[in-house]
Design a protein that fits this description.
- The protein is α/β, with parallel strands linked by helices.
- It has 3 domains: 312 residues, Alkaline Phosphatase, subunit A, CATH 3.40.720; 117 residues; 46 residues, no CATH class.
- The protein has 17 helices and 21 strands.
- The strands form 5 sheets. Strands 1, 2, 5, 6, 7, 8, 9, 19, 20 and 21 form a 10-stranded mixed sheet that branches. A 4-stranded antiparallel sheet has the order 12-13-15-14. Strands 16-11-17 form a 3-stranded mixed sheet.
- A hairpin with a 7-residue loop joins strand 6 and strand 7.
- Helix 6 runs parallel beside helix 8.
- The longest helix has 26 residues.
- The two termini are 20 Å apart.
- The mean pLDDT is 88.
């Protein structure tokens, strides 16, 4: 087969993980996805760190790691202490579809998490950051739904347990809409490369992981119905893409994995307790919040009060009025709210706006290079010897090829192999919250281990690969597979040869 004729379909299942999919495959619940696994090649796909939607998908798209992008989370520093903004774009770097477009290939991108699209040879539908996604070209929006009454759903609303039935129905409809939109856009623009992202999978896993990790026979019906809809949607997009003509490879990938949320680590409270972060009068003024937190956590320990607590907290979640009431009752202990109370002349380090990162204070009047190095070494030693958790600490240059950005982190943290979620706020009185309350948001957190399924023209039935591949390996593989040069700046390597190894013998 001439590699130049190969087309690529990439289906993104945000947060997809084999610990969930393999049991569903074995039970026959996902015939299309399990069929891809049987007919081709699969592998664990190691994410970048932090394994979060924005840095991970942007690293996949550009072939560059978070350090080279200067993007470490959903937000980035913006102005003074406690100020941040949503990451705007992966630019000025090019995504693989930008490179393909420059070389005359027709491309399509549906639901990629970026605020606004850029012109290319094909179509781009932005996702995640707005209720009405922007498209390029503008007329592409007309191909996304059956008519004006069929409102396109780019993102699920915040979850409330009392509205589970409606929320799950919206999740299934969002997945179905993505497939319908992809079919219409394929028919209109005929892409040679197509990326389609299903974000709903991550939202479901965050909220309902404790139910998803049950045996398949004991999994709630609405969650099984959701994953069946994902499988059908992937099959529809794949069929439409292949019917458009020419040899094609389908890749099903995830930006990161998922697993049970165990504990929470409050990084700024650790820094406060060890003297790296200081409040102006020695107090964080979060006594009311800590009292309410202790009360709620105490009530959550007993089944009778837990049954009453869950719907009460659910009613206070979401909505500006409810949020104001909750803050009035308990106070606001977010880092943003507490920033003005921090003594920035004495504070040397803090964690914000990325909870897995520690930043040295750029507002400190006298932090010399020697002092900075000494503080970083001291923080690292203290965290690595923390007795209540296993904390891995990395300097950015140990993880990334380059470190860019106006205010890069000094250290990155991974707590209990990501079974613990890092937090920046001051809501709880201790550094480590060992038991996550039942009323807490969701039961799942991200893991490093994502998924890769590959099938199609030129892909041998090789089964599950023993050694994991990297999310950063995808961009060079796709470019090589479509006969484009792979830039030296890319952090990964192409695994195209692994998909169809040469036959032995004469």
């Amino acid at each position: 087969m001439n590699p130049a004729s190969r087309r690529f379909l990439v289906l993104g299942l945000d947060g997809g993980t084999f610990s969930l999919l393999d049991p569903l495959f074995a039970a026959g619940e996902l015939p299309f996805l399990s069929g891809l696994a049987r007919s081709g090649f699969s592998s664990t796909l190691t994410s970048v760190f932090p394994p979060k939607t924005i840095p991970a998908w942007y690293s996949f798209a550009t072939g560059l790691d978070p350090g080279s992008l200067g993007i470490f989370g959903f937000t980035e520093p913006d102005g003074g202490p406690g100020r941040s903004r949503l990451v705007q774009t992966y630019r000025p770097h090019e995504a693989i579809w930008d490179r393909l477009s420059r070389h005359g290939r027709r491309v399509g991108v549906l639901n990629f998490p970026v605020r606004a699209p850029n012109p290319l040879n094909g179509f781009f539908v932005a996702g995640m950051f707005s209720e009405t996604p922007q498209t390029y070209p503008e007329e592409a929006v007309a191909s996304m739904t059956a008519g004006p009454k069929d409102r396109y759903l780019p993102e699920l609303p915040p979850y409330r347990a009392s509205e589970r039935r409606t929320w799950m129905r919206l999740a299934r409809r969002g997945v179905e809409q993505r497939a319908e939109a992809a079919e219409r856009l394929i028919g209109r623009y005929h892409p040679e490369f197509l990326f389609v992202l299903f974000r709903e999978t991550d939202r479901i896993e965050h909220q309902h992981w404790s139910e998803l990790e049950r045996a398949v026979g004991k999994m709630p019906h609405d969650l099984l119905a959701f994953w069946r809809e994902v499988d059908r949607a992937c099959a529809r997009v794949d069929a439409a893409f292949r019917a458009d003509g020419g040899p094609a490879v389908t890749l099903v990938i995830s930006d990161h994995g998922h697993g049970r949320a165990g504990t929470d680590f409050f990084t700024n409270r650790w820094l406060l307790e060890h003297g790296y972060l200081t409040f102006k009068d020695g107090s964080d003024h979060a006594r009311r919040r800590r009292f309410v937190s202790r009360l709620l956590m105490g009530l959550d320990r007993f089944p009778p009060t837990r049954a009453l607590l869950a719907p009460l907290v659910d009613r206070l979640q979401n909505g500006k009025r409810r949020e104001k009431l909750a803050q009035k009752v308990a106070g606001d202990a977010s880092f943003e709210a507490m920033a003005e109370r921090i003594d920035w002349d004495r504070t040397t380090a803090f964690s914000y706006p990325v909870p897995e990162a520690i930043y040295l204070n750029p507002y400190h009047p006298s932090l010399t290079a020697e002092a900075r190095a000494r503080i970083v070494a001291s923080i690292r030693s203290g965290l690595e010897s923390y007795p209540e958790a296993r904390i891995e600490v990395f300097a950015p240059d140990e993880m990334y090829r380059r470190i860019l950005g106006p205010q890069p982190p000094a250290l990155m943290l991974r707590v209990n192999r990501m079974e613990s979620e890092s937090r920046m706020d001051f809501n709880y009185p201790r550094t480590m919250m060992r038991r996550r309350p039942g009323y807490f948001y969701g039961s799942g957190v991200h893991r490093m281990e994502g998924i890769l399924l590959a099938s199609g023209d030129g892909v041998a039935p090789l089964g599950r690969r023993a050694e994991p591949l990297s999310l950063l390996d995808l961009a060079p593989t796709i470019l090589e597979g479509m006969s484009l040069p792979v830039p030296d700046s890319f952090a990964g390597r192409s695994f195209l040869a692994d998909l169809s190894p040469p036959r032995s013998g004469g």
